[in-house]
Amino acid sequence: MGNETLHAHPALVIIPTFNEADNIGRLLGELRKLYPTAVDILVIDDNSPDGTADLVRSMQLVMDGIHLITRPRKMGLGTAYITGFLYGLQKGYRYIAEMDADFSHDPAVLQRFFDAMSDAHLVIGSRYLNNTVNVVNWPLGRLILSKMASLYTRLVTGMPVADPTSGYKCFSAEVLRSLDLEKINSQGYSFQIEMNFRVWKKGFAIKEIPIVFVDRTVGKSKMTRQNIREAIWIVWWLKIKSIIGLL
């Protein structure tokens, strides 16, 4: 699938933000340069005190296809993406992608996601495909934690996804319409795991493509201990709900 198809069926890229003023302007400029018309961008900002939303508004004046939703307070990654999914479905986008604001996800790779959607319903950008580790600038402890979380998730759920906590991914609108999005309350790593698991359990085609994840160089990581704790128990909650037919 090339750019011509995307022009006919635009894709939406959702970028949640909190205090990303140092990154968001450069990222929006890069996305617009790479994809002048084929991709629309939705920034969902949780009332960043550093003026992230104001920067987005200023770029809306000079660039088409940039949309902004502001929320009254920091409400979490999962709810931001759910808000974005509902927006994307309402507006009729065919493909809806997730992307971090801090350049840990290379904007140039987006076209590979859209190409891969030709025979998949969910495409995941994997840091650990084929037993490789494509992560740059992470401390060893965080890398081990992430890799162990992936192995743990696969072991408990049986889900055949090498990088279930990856946040760089693309859904078809068909998949998102099939899910009861307003029932999904998990955050952080857990949100990514839960979305993948629900898509897999419904029998949709999931594909992974290799990406290189580069840790942010500007700003602070949003990962918390609570995110880690939630990811530990969410896999058992999902598995049990699936077994008893309440997923």
Mean pLDDT: 90
**Percent of residues in helices:** 40-55%
Arrangement of strands in the largest sheet: 3-2-1-4-7-5-8
Largest beta-sheet characterization: 7 strands, mixed
Taking all Cα atoms into account, the compactness measure Rg is 17 Å
Order of helices and strands: HEHEHEHEHEEHEHHEEH
Total of helices: 9
Relevant terms:
two-stranded parallel ribbon, disordered N terminus, single chain, globular
Can you offer a commentary on this structure?
- This protein has 247 residues and is of the alpha/beta class.
- 44% of the residues lie in helices and 17% in strands.
- The chain contains nine helices and nine strands.
- It has helices at residues 3-8, 21-34, 52-60, 77-91, 110-116, 140-157, 173-178, 188-201, 225-243, and strands spanning 11-17, 39-45, 66-70, 95-98, 122-126, 135-136, 169-172, 206-210, 213-214.
- The strands form two sheets. A seven-stranded mixed β-sheet has the order 3-2-1-4-7-5-8, with helices on both faces. Strands 6-9 form a two-stranded parallel sheet.
